[in-house]
Amino acid sequence: MLARERRYTLLSGADFYVNVKVHPCCTIEIDIPEQRQYFRPTLEQLHFKLTSQGMQLVIDQHEEELQKELHFSREDAMALCKMINEVVEEHEDLMSSLC
User: What is the pLDDT of residue 65?
Assistant: First the structure.
């Protein structure tokens, strides 16, 4: 079981790309090279919000009491959700087979 990576285009008015890597240990790496921003939240710190233009991925950064919102197309947000679910399910299957 390996981490999965994918590149998405953000809906921010500029053509910014975000590189997303989902790890089996329930963390996610989010890198926005053009903005020199990098986040590594746990999956529990993420949620999606539906907007009129697409979907927002909201990162709750409790230690800093900040929120970061990334705007995705609905299609990309659904693909990211699916990738997260697949990685989590693979991790759970592996853990249950080890018991």
Answer: 63
